[in-house]
SelT-like protein (Adineta steineri), 131 residues
Amino acid sequence: MNQTSTKTNPTSTSSSSSAYDDISNNQDEDITVIPPPKMKMQVATTITFRYCHTCGYQNLFKQFSELVRTHYPNMAVIGENYPPPSLRAFLARILSMLKMGLLVCLLFGQNPFALLSIPTPRIFHWALNNK
């Protein structure tokens, strides 16, 4: 990096030169001394909890966040639902649909296993007889 600086001769008596020196000296002082900020920003610490909503951990999160807020009032506590992995969410939907389909078949007295050429499980016969 190539920097050039102009220096004035200290023996010169020109008023414009001394005025220039005063300005440049003041600028150097302003650069090296940084004044403290007028308003101090206090950054609050944030804790983020991810919990399983369907497993019943939401109430536990509420209790824990109240406990943290009583001991540390400046601390922010954020809770959010922990999303399951996409493959597991997909499998859960498929199983839920199969379960609903079997319940509908039970209500209407239909045997879906006969349509699929699969032997009917005993539990399905028991459910058909005891509905």
